[in-house]
Specification:
This protein has 387 residues and is of the alpha+beta class. It is built from eleven helices and seven strands. One of its GO terms (cellular component) is membrane.
């Protein structure tokens, strides 16, 4: 009988359609839906509505006239009464079972509710739904004597099995929805946590940088150097960069290199014997984006742990090589032939942590101390940071 096949066949079609949408859809759309629980809810609500409309259409088609019945008096009324009885004793219990499981049963199951109680409620609802089919014999007796139609009833056990299959077929859909929603929420929380940590790391760079540059300016003022006004202007430019641009996710590579050069010039002003500094640049495109204050942090580390500790003979070598996809920035400084203090201080630890958050598995910061020289090599992809 068409009505009997409705629940199983249409449920299977519905499940197959959902799986096709989930696993064979476009990857970009899947990612967007996974990140948006609201869109997932709308999708599943629409598919559930289509499911019940489709089954109702099949049920209505079963109520239509057949050619051999066109001449029978009252055939239409009788068939519609039969359709009406199926709708209230079979179709509505199926719809109620899905609504009950999605709205109450499965959310509590997924939230870790008592499995025994939930199974008992599910079994009770299935039995209650099966009880609805006990009205079929009543309708069968009521419609006996109709215009030549045989009224086929559905047994209580058979209807209960149908309800159970509806529950089993619809549950994976809700659990898939619940899993994607939870995954989206976890991803949002992770993104928020990472953004907060990045903001904290960037905020830690500025005080450290300002302290060191102000210390340099203070040394110039004590010497009453005529270059103090020029140093103040350079410091003002550096502070403007640190306050207005360093909070961005990325800046142009050319801008970061410009700030590094300004910092080197400012540090040279305060030295009685300037350090020997070389800066080699091989950059294909200065417009590519890099995280701010990283290269500047390495240059600052070279001065703070190298040239600052040497009255004379200090040297610093810097080089940057960047093509269209990757950049390598190397800073090397002498330590006067001694096993100097901690070269791997808070500044480098800050850079390493930012790299691990922005470019996990795609960047590196390698440091080495050997033969009186300390070196740091920063490598990262020239792409938009994965925030």
């Amino acid at each position: 009988m068409p009505v009997r096949a409705t629940a199983g066949a249409v449920g299977a079609i519905d499940l197959a359609g959902q799986l096709l949408e989930l696993f064979f859809g476009q990857k970009r759309k899947m990612k967007k839906m996974m990140m948006s629980p609201l869109r997932w809810g709308r999708l599943l609500s629409a598919l559930l509505l289509l499911f019940w409309l489709f089954t109702l259409m099949l049920l209505t088609q079963d109520c239509a006239f057949e050619p051999e019945d066109w001449g029978a008096i009252g055939a239409g009324e009788y068939r519609w009464l039969r359709c009406f009885s199926y709708f209230f004793t079979l179709h509505l219990p199926y719809a109620g079972m899905v609504a009950f499981s999605w709205a109450w049963l499965l959310p509590r199951w997924a939230a870790g509710g008592s499995r025994r109680k939930l199974l008992g409620l599910a079994a009770g609802y299935i039995l209650l739904g099966g009880l609805c089919t006990s009205f079929h014999p009543f309708y069968q007796e009521l419609y006996n004597g109709g215009p030549g139609f045989a009224f086929s009833g559905i047994s209580w056990m058979e209807s209960s099995w149908y309800l159970l299959w509806v529950l089993l077929l619809s549950s994976p859909l809700y659990l898939s929805y619940h899993w994607f929603v939870q995954r989206g929420r976890i991803q949002e929380l992770d993104n928020a946590r990472l953004e907060q940590e990045l903001a904290l790391l960037r905020s830690q760079v500025n005080p450290h940088f300002f302290f060191n540059t102000l210390h340099s300016l203070y040394a110039l003022s004590l010497e009453q150097s005529p270059r103090t006004p020029e140093a103040i202007l350079k410091l003002s430019s550096l502070m403007r960069y640190a306050l207005t641009e360093a909070d961005a996710a990325a800046v142009a590579l050319g801008r970061e290199l410009e700030v590094v050069e300004q910092y080197l010039e400012l540090q040279q002003m305060r030295r009685v014997q300037p350090a020997k500094i070389t800066f080699e640049k091989q950059v294909a495109d200065e417009g590519v984006r890099v995280p701010p204050m990283m290269m500047l942090g390495l240059a600052e580390n070279a001065f703070h742990h190298g040239a600052e500790t040497l009255r004379e003979g200090a040297w610093i070598k810097l080089s940057v090589h960047a093509d269209a996809s990757r950049m390598a920035f190397r800073v090397e400084n002498n330590t006067g032939g001694r096993a100097a203090g901690p070269h791997h201080g808070k500044g480098l630890a800050n850079i390493e942590r930012r790299l691990s958050l922005l470019y996990p598995g795609r960047s590196s910061l390698q440091t080495a101390l050997e033969e009186g020289a300390f070196s740091a090599v920063l490598e990262l992809p020239l792409a938009a940071p994965a925030e």
